[in-house]
Amino acid sequence: MDDATLKSLKDALGASPDNTALKMIVLRAFMDRGQPGEAVALLDGLGPDDLPNDDDRNAAARALIAAGGAETALDFASVETPESLMLRARALLDLGREPEGREAYARAVSMNAAVEDLSLKARLFAREAEPAGGGGDRPKLRVISNDNTDEEEVHRLTAPEAEPVTFADVGGLAAVKDQIRKKIILPFEKPALFEKFRKRIGGGILLYGPPGCGKTLLARATAGECGAQFFNVAIADVLDMYIGESEGKLHAIFEAARSHTPAVLFFDEIEALGGKRQHHREATSAKLVSQFLAEMDGFAKNNSGVLVLGATNVPWAVDPAFRRPGRFDRVQFIPPPDRPARAEILGILLRGRPLAASIDADWIAGHTSGFSGADLENIVETAADLAIEASLEAGDEVPIDDAILKRALKEVKPTTLEWLTTARNYARYANEGGQYDDVLDFLAKHGK
Q1: Tens-place pLDDT, residues 321-363
Q2: Residue 249, C-beta contacts closer than 8 angstroms, at least 6 positions apart
Q3: Is the model's pTM score more than 0.70?
Q4: Over the stretch 363-403, which tens digit does the pLDDT of each residue have?
Q5: In the chain, how many domains are there?
Q6: 425 and 392 part of one domain
Q7: Would residue 309 count as lying in a domain?
Q8: Residue 196: other Cβ atoms inside 10 A
Q9: Which CATH number goes with the domain that contains 237?
Q10: If we measure between CA atoms, which residue out of 207, 173, 203 comes closest to residue 187?
Q11: DSSP state letters, 239-291
C-alpha cells in the first residue's frame, strides 16, 4: 500500500474512530510495512470479543507478538484453528513456556500440515546445549578396533528385521501365497507331522521375476507367517576384497542362522553370489559359489529349520547347480500383479494418507497393465508430491483425489516390459526341463 492510500485510510479512521473493520485494514497495512508498533496502537481499547472474525483476531495476535506483547497475544489467539494455534505457539515461546508451545504447535500441524514452520519448530524443540567439557549422561564414544571383529560383523549382517511383515501386507499374488503356505509355512507349523514322513523343514526357494514385483516383500512376509527370524543378508557385505574372507563370512552367516532356528535367510540379487561359474574369470568367484553350495547341503551341515530364500531378476544367470534337489529345489515365478492385485496394492499404498471422500482405485488399476508393485508405489508417491504442492499453494491440506492420481499416472511408465521381453526369449529358446513354463503361461494369458 502506498503512502497516499495509507494516509487516506488514516484520515477516514480519524473521522470514524469506532470503525473496527477499517482499523483492521490499517493494522494490516502497518504490518505489511514492518511497523508493528503503529499496528498495535490501533488495538487500544479493543479486546478479542470486539473483533468480528478469526482472521482479524489472528492479525491482532500477529501484531502483538511482533511488538513484544506476547502475553496479550494469547488472549487473541485463543481459538482452536491451525493458524491461531501456531500464533499461540510463537507467543508461548516468547514467554519461555516451551512445553505449552510445543503442544500448541503439534495440535496445529495435526489439524493442517500446511502450516508447519520448521524455523519455529527448531526453536521450540531445541535442547539446551551441554556445558563445556561434556560429561553428564552423554554416551561415551566406543572405539572398536579392526582386529577380530568377525562375530560383531556377522551379528550386524544377520540382524533380524524390527517389524514382522505378513501376507496381509502383500497385495495380490494369491496363488503364490497358497503355494508358499503349503510347501513352506505348513512344515514350520506342523514339524512333528512332517518329521513322521521324514520330510525336512527348511530347504531353499528361489523367487524370480521382474524387478519391483514383490520378491523381497514376499520373502519377509514368509518369515512373518512362519514366526521365524528373518535375516536379510546384504550381498555387498558378504563380498570381500581379500581371498577367503567372503567364504568365511558366508559360513559364519549360515552358522548364525543354524543357531537361531527357525530362521529365514534371504539373499537378494543372488546371482552376485551364485552366478554361473563358467562365466567367472577369477577362481575366487567360483570358490564362493562352491562355498554357498556346500553351506546349503554340504557334508555334516544341519540346516533343519533354516529356510534359504533367494531372489533374482536374472534366473538364467544363476549357476545350474543351485537347482539341484536339496538346494533351491523350489522355484517360484513372481509375475507383475493382475488387475485385482493392482487394486489391492493401491489400497495398501494409499492407506493412512489424506484422501478425498471417494477414490476410484479400480480405474487406476484398469489402466496400469504391466505395472509392477514398485511402479504403483511410484504413482502414489507422485500423487502425494502433487497433493503437497497443491496444499502449499492453497495454504490448506489438499487430499489426494482422482484428478491428482490421474495426473500422477501420466508421469509414470511401467518398468516390467523390458524384462518380460528378455524372459520370453529365454522361455522360448532355453527352457531346459520346463523351468520357465510359468513365464510362458503368464505371457500366453496376458497376450505379451
Answers
A1: 887 777 787 788 888 888 888 998 898 899 889 898 888 888 9
A2: 150, 153, 154, 157, 237, 238, 240
A3: no
A4: 999 999 889 989 999 999 999 999 999 988 888 888 999 99
A5: 4
A6: no
A7: yes
A8: 9
A9: 3.40.50.300
A10: 203
A11: --SSTTHHHHHHHHHHHHHHTT-SEEEEESSTHHHHB-GGG-SSHHHHHHHHH
